[in-house]
Specification:
This protein has helices at about 5-20, 30-35, 55-65, 85-95, 105-120, 130-140, 150-160, 170-180, 185-200, 205-210, 225-255, and strands at about 45-50, 75-80, 95-100. By secondary structure, it is mainly alpha-helical.
Length: about 260
């Protein structure tokens, strides 16, 4: 990450750590510091503020990409303005630009979530169901410290691989989970409800608000039921798998 606001970088690093999705492993506060990066080979995501000292961030990205062998999944440039030249340059480099003034780390996290929703599957070569389910729950903000977390992870895995389970009522699914974890259906239902409500009430990010149609302001927020949460997550996972599979077939056909 290259940004000249140290407080924002520190706040963003803390948010990333809490989310469990990413870790900030490198940063620069000046253009000179950013240019010293040898390559992007070790990074999954690169975020650059265009208005850095010495040289615009877009041009430094272009220079470092020339030294890069393994391209990051996402390169995001934050620019105070945009024009045809900037748009064409970003398109030629396959980087995403956002004409926004990022005022806090939550705004920056929302940009990552928006990218994931819009284009997250574009760079995936394989679909690992277990990994994607865990990442889905993390993006939704579900906390592992709640007992219900492992119940969500378990039932999403089962239902993803067995479409017939979608026909069952929730009380039957609670019984299925309870049988596996040696718990009563009533306790499973309660644990999942507590996990969902408490996790989402702590913070509803862009990913959750968009996926479940939740308002941004507290008085507009109607949290999803357990049933809705499971069905929406399953649909999202299935869409991702289909996209990755079709992309693989297209690539093989072009060889």
């Amino acid at each position: 990450m290259a940004h000249n606001n140290p407080a924002l970088v520190e706040e963003f690093a803390a948010l990333l750590s809490r989310s469990g999705l990413y870790e900030l492993v490198g940063y620069a506060y000046t253009g000179e510091g950013f240019e010293m990066i040898e390559s992007f080979d070790l990074y999954d995501i690169v975020i650059v503020k265009d208005a850095l000292t010495y040289m615009p961030g877009i041009y430094m990205v272009k220079k470092i990409l020339q030294r890069t062998t393994i391209r990051p999944e996402l390169i995001l440039v934050l620019t105070p303005f945009s024009n045809a030249f900037i748009r064409n340059l970003c398109q030629s480099l396959d980087i995403i630009y956002r004409n926004v003034a990022v005022t806090n780390a939550f705004h920056l996290m929302d940009l990552l979530y928006k990218y994931d929703l819009d284009e997250g599957a574009r760079h995936k070569k394989v679909f690992d169901t277990q990994y994607e389910i865990i990442m889905m729950l993390k993006k939704c903000g579900l906390q592992r410290r709640y007992l219900g977390y492992k119940y969500f992870e378990y039932i999403l895995n089962l239902m993803f691989h067995d479409p017939n389970l979608a026909k069952k009522k929730m009380k039957e699914l609670y019984a299925l989970i309870g049988e596996h974890f040696h718990a009563s259906p009533a306790s499973v239902e309660k644990a999942m409800r507590i996990c969902l409500k408490q996790s989402l009430r702590q913070h509803t990010n862009y990913y959750v608000r968009t996926l479940f149609g939740i308002g941004e302001h507290p008085n507009q927020q109607t949290l999803p039921s357990t049933t809705t949460f499971i069905q929406v997550c399953l649909n999202r996972l299935k869409d991702q798998k289909t996209y990755v599979a079709l992309k693989g077939m297209k690539n093989r056909a072009q060889i």
